Amino acid sequence: MSNLIRPCRGVFAPPRLAVILGVLIACAVANDQARAQPATPVASAAAPFVSDRLSVEVVGAGPDVILIPGLASSREVWRATADRLKATHRVHLVQLAGFAGEPWAHGDGAFVRPEVEELARYIREAGLDRPAVIGHSMGGLSGLLLVQQQPGLVGRVMTVDSLPFYSAMFGPTATAESARPFADQAAGMILGADVASFRTQQEATAKALSRTLSEQARIVDWSMASDRHAVASAMKDVMTTDARPGLAAMTTPVTALYAADADGGAPAAMADGLWGREYSALPGVTLIRVDGSRHFIMADQPERFAELVDAFLAK
Predict the structure, then answer these.
(1) How far is the C-alpha of 66 from the C-alpha of 131, rounded, in Å?
(2) What is the pLDDT of residue 108?
(3) Using one digit for the tens of pLDDT, what is the confidence trace for 6-55?
(4) If exposure means fewest CB atoms within 10 Å of the residue's CB, which of 153, 194, 255, 280 is most exposed?
(5) By the 8 A CB rule, do 96 and 122 touch?
(6) Which of the two residues, 200 and 78, has the higher pLDDT score?
(7) Residue 155 confidence (pLDDT)
(8) Which distant-in-sequence residues (6+ apart) come within 8 Å of 37 by Cβ?
(9) Selection from 170, 163, 167 nearest residue 140 by Cα
(10) The pLDDT value given to residue 13
(11) Residue 136: partners with Cβ closer than 8 Å, 6 or more residues away
């Protein structure tokens, strides 16, 4: 991230900025095979739902839980969580189109809001009754937007190392408009990068995103299998989408997990300040810091993450 966008003084160091904005989570280079695939609707084998924005795998039985991955990630980021929850819950694992090998049919068009609209349509068509939603990174932002756009559709939301406005990383005075030039720059560099250099950068950046070697390898693989047009579009949307104005009117319970890591990640005090500031307008939000973790909390602190998910679902 430090090679793409320079953060303003007084905010997180470049590695953390990479983690939060997700540029180097997912500035992915689509392989030629994936980009050569014809654009076809994505069908869920487990639910009567067809969409060219997302697919859903359903496992287990019980109260409904929707799991949304982040930018350029696979639904496999949630596999351990789903395997644990499926004995007591019906788990809906979302895969966003364009990421981790899922086909993308929308060129350089909008990403986040159309995806959120499809999530809402899925909930309605599947007949889900106020499901819980857990979203990582961009998936967490999607959960907040879903609640704001469709009040009453979701029962509760957990965001995992996610902010309502990612470009707040540039400082407390940042706005969607002031972030737009940086977003355009990031998207241009995603689209213009060559495969070899991007793989090298992905490998280096994965170390800032997770302390776990196996997860670092998966992050790189997912990014390299993603469609770069999808990633560039998602990146621009994430950097210029500000969900903060809608926080004050939200009545849906929200739990926001965030990472701190004294050994190469976000310092605890700095993370506390940022999350406290950015979620301050949300009534009743539960903020929980997870120490010893980088961006992929579910991989870096799996036992603690499982405890927090169980407590969230038991409320």
Answers:
(1) 7
(2) 95
(3) 333 333 433 334 443 443 333 333 333 333 333 333 433 444 799 999 99
(4) 194
(5) no
(6) 78
(7) 98
(8) 103
(9) 163
(10) 35
(11) 68, 69, 70, 73, 77, 78, 160, 161, 162, 296, 297, 298
Indicate whether 3 pLDDT > 60: no
Residues 6+ apart with CB under 8 A from 279: 164, 247, 254, 256, 285, 287
SS (H, E, C) the chain: CCCCCCCCCCCCCHHHHHHHHCHHHHCCCCCHHHHHCCCCCEECCCCCCEECCEEEEEEECCCEEEEECCCCCCHHHHHHHHHHHCCCCEEEEEEECCCCCCCCCCCCCCCHHHHHHHHHHHHHHCCCCCCEEEEECHHHHHHHHHHHHCCCCCCEEEEECCCCCHHHHHCCCCCHHHHHHHHHHHHHHHHHCCHHHHHHHHHHHHHHHCCCHHHHHHHHHHHHHCCHHHHHHHHHHHHHCCCHHHCCCCCCCEEEEEEECCCCCCCHHHHHHHHHHHCCCCCCCEEEEEECCCCCHHHHCHHHHHHHHHHHHHC
Q: What is the mean pLDDT of the chain?
A: 87
Q: How far is residue 47's CA from residue 213's CA, in Å, rounded to a whole number?
A: 34
Averaged pLDDT for residues 169-194: 94
Residue 35: per-residue pLDDT = 35
CB within 8 A of 218, min separation 6: which ones? 74, 76, 77
Do 58 and 91 form a contact (C-beta atoms < 8 A)?
Answer: yes
| pLDDT for position 264 | 84
Domains (ranges, CATH) in the chain? Answer: 14-314 (3.40.50.1820)
Residue 209 has pLDDT above 70, yes or no: yes
Burial class of 187 by CB neighbour count within 10 A (0 to 12, 13 to 18, 19+): buried
